[in-house]
Specification:
The protein is built from four helices and eight strands. By secondary structure, the chain is an alpha+beta fold. Strands 1-4-3-2 form a four-stranded mixed β-sheet, with helices on one face. Strands 5-6-7-8 form a four-stranded antiparallel β-sheet, covered by helices on one side.
Length: 186
């Protein structure tokens, strides 16, 4: 979720945020409606909270914002709180068992430094920055625990690279990591 000032938005969205527009869909300021420039953003005021809520309904965008209706409202920047994984990691043996149904083999586990978690049907995959420093990681449960994926982010920097610096070439990119990892294993 993003919090903007009302004056950051284009005039038609400002009017929608104040409830002065008759339109129901708008051009998203984040994705601009994609190639087709579809009107995929909804925007409506919530008078009881003093905010306007905007949401882009394009699957590839996901823009969501809250805007104070008072243009003079002071908006503080969100404070980042790091979250570290504190579980005990085991060898790749259980990770191989858990990921084999996804056709993810030992080469991908070694390349991405994926380990199983002691006492749980789960794997942990660290996320690395461009210089090879660990920036956190992703825990994926396979035993029905909800949510089944939990992220641990140790820095407020973006997650730019999932591969460690030990790998000389980047064979794949892992945004949603199970599918790309299965491609790396082949």
């Amino acid at each position: 979720m993003r919090i903007h000032s009302l004056t950051d938005w284009p005039p038609e969205l400002q009017a929608a945020a104040r409830g002065e527009s008759g339109a129901s869909r708008y051009l998203c300021p984040a994705c601009n409606g994609g190639r087709s420039r579809e009107l995929s953003l909804t925007c409506a005021p919530e008078y009881f909270s003093g905010f306007a809520i905007a949401k882009c309904w394009r699957a590839s965008c996901g823009y969501f914002a809250k805007v104070p209706l008072d243009p003079s409202a002071k908006i503080g920047t969100p404070q980042f709180k790091p979250r570290f994984f504190e579980g005990e990691l085991a060898s790749q043996g259980d990770a191989v068992r858990l990921l084999m149904p996804y056709n993810i083999g030992v080469p991908a586990l070694e390349a991405f430094n994926i380990r199983s978690v002691v006492g749980k049907d789960a794997v942990y995959m660290p996320a690395y920055g461009p210089a090879g420093q660990e920036r956190g990681g992703m825990l994926r449960y396979f035993d029905g625990t909800q949510p089944k994926a939990v992220s641990y982010k140790a820095t407020d920097q973006p997650w730019q690279a999932w591969l460690s610096s030990r790998i000389s070439s980047a064979p794949c990119v892992a945004g949603s990591w199970v599918t790309p990892l299965s491609r790396c294993s082949a």
